[in-house]
Structure to design on (224 residues):
């Protein structure tokens, strides 16, 4: 009888673990995060209303694993204040950048003819593996512990157009529309304020002349 009872206990434990695993963790995740935080702000800073209108983000992946981000934002409100006051403009940009998926470094901004341009780097946004470069911010990280809830929130564009560019001579493998050679493009759906990015696999830049690019892409994702 003892072996039979042990089997029942094990079976009950397996059922309990399966039930825990089946509980969706999405409710405990962080809020959705825009790819471009500075592309869609609408706020008041130091008593001045500022708001973005149409915008575009371009991210260039470099072969050494660093990335360069350029956001171009037409300003609906606050253009004059942002153009005339450098410290005010930096305060607006710093606040808006806090929502981005990027970890911005060396942030520079300027306003010209009502358009805000923000340039920055993120040296942690890509990883090099097996001669390929994996761009990681578009897929949210989950919790490290088994069956734990939480993790990063889903991604949405936060801009009208997002272009991801591979290094020269590289091809990009991943979701999104195919643009020019070595590009992936995502565009905001008409009338949709938060267009989901819907990327399940990290985009990977692979040397166009390398052998077995599909295998390199799969292995690079596995290692990232």
């Amino acid at each position: 009888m003892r072996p039979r009872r042990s089997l029942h206990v094990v079976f009950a434990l397996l059922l309990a673990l399966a039930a825990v695993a089946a509980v969706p963790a999405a409710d405990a995740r962080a809020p959705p995060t825009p790819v471009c935080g500075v592309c869609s702000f609408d706020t008041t800073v130091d008593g001045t209303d500022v708001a973005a209108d149409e915008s575009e983000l371009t991210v260039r992946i470099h072969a050494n694993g660093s990335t360069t981000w350029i956001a171009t934002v037409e300003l609906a409100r606050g253009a004059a204040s942002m153009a005339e006051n450098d410290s005010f403009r930096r305060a607006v940009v710093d606040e808006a950048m806090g929502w981005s998926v990027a970890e911005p470094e060396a942030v520079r901004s300027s306003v010209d003819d009502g358009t805000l341009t923000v340039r920055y780097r993120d040296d942690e946004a890509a990883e090099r593996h097996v001669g390929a470069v994996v761009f990681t911010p578009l897929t949210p990280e989950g919790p490290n512990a088994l069956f734990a809830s939480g993790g990063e929130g889903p991604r949405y564009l936060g801009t009208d157009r997002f272009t991801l560019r591979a290094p020269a001579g590289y091809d990009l493998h991943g979701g999104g529309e195919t643009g020019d050679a070595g590009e992936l493009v995502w565009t905001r759906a008409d009338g949709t304020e938060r267009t989901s990015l819907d990327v399940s696999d990290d985009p990977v830049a692979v040397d166009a002349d390398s052998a077995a690019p599909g295998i390199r892409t799969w292995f690079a994702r596995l290692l990232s």
Summary: Residues 33-223 form one domain.
